């Protein structure tokens, strides 16, 4: 099921994509669940496999500018400049869609979210398939994103035709999503820090914090959630008797008294912390703990994306935690 990206396996994967199947593949952010973005039936399989609601549009992945021009109808100059600077890489741009992109991919929106990944396996798969790939993160809807092939195998193994091995992903958080309107809006924090975009775009409207209505499911208050209840807290806020049955997701220092502690970055490096975030949550979630406490990190650079994911993973106060044994994402 999980296969190394040898030329033979890449060819097999490309063949699966061309015939309308599903292939999970590594990108520099998280693993994606890919299908031919120009084939409505193939894209429908993604929604089925992820148990993803149809109002949640997919990101389309391209390998070159030729493919980009098949999926978008127009590239405004500001998008051109961003692509020049950040592509291939973890920046997703929301642009006017072409007629060739089926409505299921964009959930009926007149725009399409598109990015050019920079992982060699992702690029090679798209090139060999010869079509753009619609690919959300390869996890059941609402659950933790996969940063390793084994996460995909565990969560979606039965529903994917092939999983390409690419080791642990580089960034560990999803791409940053920008809607290029007047003014541009940051729709999702991700692997490109907002500060880097603002150099080019000027002050960004932070859609994530400032908009009331969820525009993208990545903005739903609860998303990226483990099954174990998770709470944001500094270690000193957790009473000693609570620590014994709880896990602690630490930023850099190891606190005392917890049943298990995972450290995101011993040196306090936010890039390293982001890369370890989902892996650490996957590990903690498998231990049957009563509670996971997660330590806040500074909101700068990759810290914005980390805090965004942690806040959404934390169950909102007062909400009942999902029952154990229930399929992930069904809450
Ligand atoms: O890093 C990533 O972006 C990963 C890898 C696999 O490339 N993909 C990913 O896809 O995170 P997904 O489906 O988990 O997140 C896609 C987000 C969704 O929240 C979706 O609503 C938003 O992109 N989106 C897609 N099309 C959009 C559109 N036309 N307008 C606004 N948001 C859109
Ligand atoms: Mg996702």
UniProtKB/TrEMBL annotation:
Pfam families the UniProt entry points to: Sua5_C (PF03481), Sua5_yciO_yrdC (PF01300)
Binding, ATP: 52, 111, 137, 145, 188, 224
InterPro entries hit by this protein: DHBP_synth_RibB-like_a/b_dom, Sua5-like_dom, Sua5/YwlC_C, Sua5_C, T(6)A37_SUA5, TC-AMP_synthase_SUA5
Subcellular location: Cytoplasm
Binding-site list for L-threonine: 29, 61, 115, 135, 175
Family: Belongs to the SUA5 family.
Function: Required for the formation of a threonylcarbamoyl group on adenosine at position 37 (t(6)A37) in tRNAs that read codons beginning with adenine.
Protein name listed in UniProt: Threonylcarbamoyl-AMP synthase
Organism whose genome encodes this protein: Meiothermus granaticius NBRC 107808
Lineage of producing organism: Bacteria, Thermotogati, Deinococcota, Deinococci, Thermales
């Amino acid at each position: 099921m999980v296969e190394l990206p040898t030329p033979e396996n890449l060819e097999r994967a490309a063949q699966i994509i061309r015939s309308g199947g599903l292939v999970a593949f590594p990108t520099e952010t998280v693993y994606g669940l890919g299908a031919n973005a120009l084939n409505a039936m193939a894209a429908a399989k993604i929604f089925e496999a992820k148990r993803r609601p149809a109002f949640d549009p997919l990101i389309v992945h391209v390998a070159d500018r030729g493919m980009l021009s098949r999926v978008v109808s127009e590239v405004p100059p500001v998008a051109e400049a961003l692509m020049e600077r950040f592509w291939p890489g973890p920046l997703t741009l929301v642009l006017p869609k072409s007629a060739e992109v089926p409505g299921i991919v964009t959930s009926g929106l007149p725009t399409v979210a598109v990015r050019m990944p920079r992982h060699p396996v992702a690029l090679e798969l798209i090139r060999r398939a010869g079509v753009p790939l619609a690919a959300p993160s390869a996890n059941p809807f609402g659950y933790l994103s996969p940063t390793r092939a084994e996460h995909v195998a565990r969560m979606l193994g039965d529903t994917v035709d092939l999983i390409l091995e690419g080791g642990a992903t580089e960034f560990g958080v999803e791409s940053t999503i920008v809607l290029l309107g007047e003014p541009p809006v940051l729709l999702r924090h991700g692997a490109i820090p907002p500060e880097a975009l603002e150099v080019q775009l000027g002050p960004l409207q932070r859609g994530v914090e400032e908009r009331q209505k969820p525009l993208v499911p990545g903005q739903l208050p609860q998303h990226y959630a483990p099954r174990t209840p998770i709470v944001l807290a500094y270690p000193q806020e957790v009473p000693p008797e609570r620590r014994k049955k709880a896990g602690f997701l630490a930023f850099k220092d190891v606190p005392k008294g917890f049943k298990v502690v995972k450290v995101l970055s011993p040196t306090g490096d936010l890039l390293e912390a982001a890369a370890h975030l989902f892996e650490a949550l996957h590990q903690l979630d498998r231990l049957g703990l009563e509670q996971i406490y997660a330590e806040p990190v500074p909101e700068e650079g990759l810290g914005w994306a980390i805090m965004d994911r942690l806040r959404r993973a934390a169950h909102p106060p007062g909400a009942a935690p999902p029952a154990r044994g229930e399929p992930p994402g069904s809450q």
